[in-house]
Amino acid sequence: MSIAGFAPETHDSIVRRRAKLLAAWGAALLLFCLLQYGLEPRGSHVSILIIDTSWTVVTLIAAYQSGLTAMKFEGRERYAWLALGAGSGAWFIGQVYWDYLELGLGKIVPFPAWSDVGYLSFPLPVIAGLLLLVRRADLRASYLRPLCNLGL
Questions:
Q1: pLDDT per residue over 10-60, tens digit each?
Q2: Which of 126, 117, 133 is nearest to 83 (CA)?
C-alpha cells in the first residue's frame, strides 16, 4: 500500500468518484429499461419478475445503507438515518409479501393487501427522519417553515 492511499481526498477526486457513481447508476437504469421495455412484452412473467425483484433489492439496499450511515453519526443525525432506514425496511417487508403473492403463489395481488401495511408505513418514519435532519435555525431562517405549514 502506498502513502498516496492515506492522502486526504481532493475536490477533483470527490468529483470523479461521484461522476463514476452517477455513470454506474445511469448504466444500471438503462439496463433496467432495456430489460423491462425492450425485451419482454408488458405483463409477462419475466417482466413482473424484473419489476418485483428490482423493487425488493432497491428497498433492501436503501434500508441497509441507511443503517450503515446511521452508525457513523451520533445523536439527532443517527436517529434521523435510523428513521429513514425504518421507512425503507417497512417498504421492503411489504414488497417481500407482494413478491410472495405474485411470484411465489402466482396470484394477482388484491387491494387492499397486507403488503399495503408496509407501503403505508413508509412515509411516517421518513418524514420524521427528514424533520430530524432539519436544524431549528435552518427552519426559522428558510422557506422550510412555510413549506411544512402547507400540510396543515
A1: 777 888 888 998 899 889 888 877 776 777 677 778 778 888 888 999 999
A2: 126
* 8-state DSSP, 109: P
DSSP for residue 7: S
Whole-model pTM: value is 0.70
Burial zone of 2 (CB within 10 Å; 0-12 exposed, 13-18 middle, 19+ buried): exposed
3-class DSSP assignment, residue 142: coil
How buried is residue 47: exposed, middle or buried, by Cβ count under 10 Å (0-12/13-18/19+)? middle
d(CA 31, CA 57): 15
For residue 6, the model assigns a pLDDT of 56
Q: How far is CA 134 from the centre of its chain?
A: 19
Tally of CB atoms within 10 A around 125:
19
H or E stretch covering 57: helix 45-71
